[in-house]
Amino acid sequence: MSQWRPLKGDFLDEMLWHEVLGDDHGGPRCAYCEAPYIPAHDTTRLFKCYDCGQFLQCDDCCLLHHERTPQHVIEEWSGQFWVSCMLAQIGLVYQLGHSGFPCPFPDSTVRKLVVMEAPIIHEIRVSYCKCAKSDNADNLQQLLRNAWYPVMVTDPGTCATFRSMESYRLYNVLGNMNVRDYCWKYKLDPHERYKQFQRMARQWAFLKHLKRAGRGHDPLGVNSTALGECTVQCWACPQEERNLPDGWEDSFKDARFLYMLILAVDANFRLKNRIRTNEIDDPSLGPGWGYWVEPTKYKRHLKNIYKRERGTISTCIAFAALLQKDTRLTTGLRVSGVGGCVCARHECMCPNGLGDGRPAEGRKVRLQYANMDFIVMSALAGFSLLWLTISYDIACQWKLHIVERVPKLPQELCLPLDKIKVQYALPVWHAGSHNEDCQDENSLSLKVGVGKTDGEGVERTWSVLNPAAFSTKDSGCGVHTDSLEGKIDNHNYLKNVGQ
What we know:
By secondary structure, the protein is α+β, with helices and mostly antiparallel strands. The chain has three domains: 86 residues, no CATH class; 120 residues, no CATH class; 274 residues, no CATH class. The chain is 30% helix and 18% strand. It contains 16 helices and 18 strands. A hairpin with a 7-residue loop joins β8 and β9. α4 crosses α6, α5 packs across α6 and α6 crosses α16. The radius of gyration is 30 Å and the shape is elongated. It starts with 7 loop residues before the first helix and ends with a helix.
């Protein structure tokens, strides 16, 4: 910085140099054809393009060299200063459907198209291809093949570039930026473009989700996607046919901990979702394909169980305080929070290991055992298990009648607990809230084969997802679930590569 201070005036002069004709103020001319600029005549107009470089171009050369780059930003010299201009204003018509080659039979109708590419909104005149050389691609396909994402599927008049869509997705996943802030940041009129861009951003994030999971290569199509298939799974957790040796089921007793799955379960009341009076039926784009449980069966299960869930007096004197922690006022809420399930050793969210806490009748509700039973068993459905440890801050109470509750779940989630060695435990930090007898019986530190696992990884996962609570609190049902998928994908990937 000390070396730069004496040069600050020179830097400012060079910035102002771009506001005039630069070195060509004496006899400005086109850098391509050397046509001179004569202020008194309209025969030659001067332009410069920030994307091509800081040199002058006449109108003919500018059109010629931008036939394949309609999104370049140009300015025209007015005689005293540079004025913003668009290529469509000087006659450019961009041909779609031929990857830059001319079309022998273009559409006779030239259409105006708005293309959002932050921080610019372009108005581009386009001509669709109507010949057979474009593989009979319709207008929608021609836009997508040009890396322009259309706002609607019937006669779109607005698009956004793939680069802008990916830019927003990364800002949202890594920086929790919402669509409104993105529109303001890049000077996109929020009143005019907000809903359009919001819809496109949600679709784009979902398509990236499918692409990462390889669903575009399935000959049966994306609708054949199985539950939990669109996830970034933990690389290190024991999974048959992935990282378990042959004969692992017959391993010696002292080595069984190597093939034991350890899960951490918890409820999070920051990720609420409000009831909206103008809410429309807008479910998730991929229900149950990612980290959320399958919604239809989940709702049906809760509807049957919520009638009256059997309570049991806890043997732990500290349980009443923990119950208050899991109790919240739910007036005006569609979702009071979420329940989640992660692998305790590596802190990756499990496929189908996330579910909404849906309020029952009345003003207060907690994430009941029915919720957590469904979430945990959904997460375990993809594993072949003989040994299992589950860490939960109210495990001392939750475990008491789980053998009786599991058969009430959908048949495919009824894990045969009588054939699996299951340990229920309290996470290390939370165990201090329980009395000594409860700690002696349930502390994770005293369980066989868990090593130094603390069981608090799910709390650290919430710290990653909680910043999204503000932007998802007032969103619709489908947006609430879909918007977290990309964040969890990123979280799981970083955990995998960082192990």
